[in-house]
Every structure is written in structure tokens, then in C-alpha cells.
Amino acid sequence: MINIFSVMIHTLLPRYCYGCEDVLVEAEEVICLDCLLELNKTHNLHETESELTKKVSFSFNVENAVSFIYFDSDSIARKLIHRFKYEEDIIIGKYLTRLFCQELKQKDWIKDIDYIIPLPLHWLKKVKRGYNQSEIISNIIGKEFDIKVKTNYLKRIKYTQSQTKKSREKRWDNVKGIFRVINQDKLKNKHILLVDDIVTTGSSIYSCINELSKVEGIKISVLTLASTN
Ligand SMILES: [Zn+2]
């Protein structure tokens, strides 16, 4: 009976792939199998020192830096991340994070994390967008691994315009000193996981790391859903 009911629901209320917009079959969730197979995974979770680690470690060495998929131009990944970030398709971010969690389970260092800190949005941007996509990713990981998500330890104190059309130098100028650690004592000697949706030049993440690294004994790891190749 359940199967017949389920088939009826799918026929009457078809669901569509967020990647290619084809109708999803019953076993598919959020994206179709073709789009799922097309995601270009970074696999840097399994490297000892990933390219991403080098990208975000300047004056401070991060413990681990991992990203799930590449944000290639004209890719399904690009479309999915864009919809998650700008078009309120939160379901996409949750789905991709759950997929990434399956791989994260293989890594012991994730159990060493004390707090997850989502990269903060300026409050005005959060009001305009209605959500902080990094918080959504963080909450899924926090739930999966039973780690507390802290949104009140790091604040964005300056409103910045979109980074996407700026040169690398301008991006860095744009984000210098825009974050502030609110309660340094709570983060002393803790291992934190800094989370963002996508890393491009790494300037926003680096600006956060720069600020967090002032905390005594802190260890920092970084996780993003996507990264540029
Ligand atoms: Zn598809």
C-alpha cells in the first residue's frame, strides 16, 4: 500500500532536480543521480596537507582545511551553491553537507573539535538574505557530530559589498579587520572549526583566522562546502 501511495504522490506531485531540473525518481533526493555523479569532489579530506590548507595558512598554520566539491565554471556545483546562497534553496546546502558528513566520519580529527564557528555575516546582510548559509552548514555538522555551534564568539563588525567582482588585492583590503572575537576566554586552548559555504581567494576566511589566532592556545580547522580549483 505504501509503495502505491508513494508512486501516486510522485506522479501527482513530481519533484525536480535542483541541478538539471529533470523529474526526480523516488530514490533520488534534491538532485538526480546524473548531477550527483557530475559533482567534482576535491578529495582533499584525504590529503595530509591540502591546497586549501596552504591557501588559508599565511601567518598561522591551520590544523586541517577541507572542502567537499570544486566550484568549476558552468558546473552543476556552481549552480547548486548559487541557489543555496542567493535563492533561498536551503535544502541544497543541507543535502550537500549531509553528503560531506558521510566522508567526514572517516576522519578522527573531527572528534577533536570543541566548537564550530560559522563565518559571520554582517547583521544587515543576514536580515536582507534571511539566513546565514554558513550557519546552516554548521548546524548540520554540529548535529551529526554532536559539536556545539557558536554564533556569538566571532562578529563581523563591518558591512562589505560583494567580493565576487573584486581583484585579489581589493578583496583583501575589503576584509582586513572586519571580524572581531567577542569572548577570547571561552576560546582559549580550544580547537575550533571555522565553516563557510565557499572559498575563492580565501581572503574572508583568512581575515577570520587572523583575528581568531590572537586567542591563546587556539587550534583552527577550516571547512567549506565548495572551493575554486
Ligand atoms: Zn539533475
Textual characterization of the structure:
- The chain folds into two domains: 1-38, no CATH class; 39-227, Rossmann fold (3-Layer(aba) Sandwich), CATH 3.40.50.
- The chain is globular.
- The chain has ten helices and seven strands.
- With 229 residues, the chain is of the alpha/beta class.
- The protein has helices spanning 2-12, 33-38, 51-56, 76-86, 90-104, 123-129, 133-145, 168-175, 184-187, 203-212, and strands at residues 65-70, 115-118, 148-149, 154-156, 179-181, 191-199, 219-227.
- The model has no long low-confidence stretch (mean pLDDT 89).
- Helix 10 (203-212) links the parallel strand 6 and strand 7.
- The strands form two sheets. The protein has a five-stranded parallel sheet with strand order 1-7-6-2-3, with helices on both faces. A two-stranded antiparallel ribbon has the order 4-5.
- It binds zinc ion.
- Zinc ion is lined by residues 17, 19-20, 22, 31-32, 34-35.
CATH topology of the largest domain: Rossmann fold
- If strands are numbered along the chain, what order do they take across the biggest sheet? 1-7-6-2-3
Strand content: 15-25%
Distance between termini? 48 Å
Major beta sheet summary: 5 strands, parallel
Structural features:
229 residues, alpha/beta, Rossmann fold, 2 domains, 5-stranded parallel sheet, two-stranded antiparallel sheet, 10 helices, 40% helix, globular, binds zinc ion
Secondary structure layout:
Layout: H1 2-12, H2 33-38, H3 51-56, E1 65-70, H4 76-86, H5 90-104, E2 115-118, H6 123-129, H7 133-145, E3 148-149, E4 154-156, H8 168-175, E5 179-181, H9 184-187, E6 191-199, H10 203-212, E7 219-227
Parallel strand pairs: 1-7, 2-3, 2-6, 6-7
Antiparallel strand pairs: 4-5
The structure holds zinc ion (ZN).
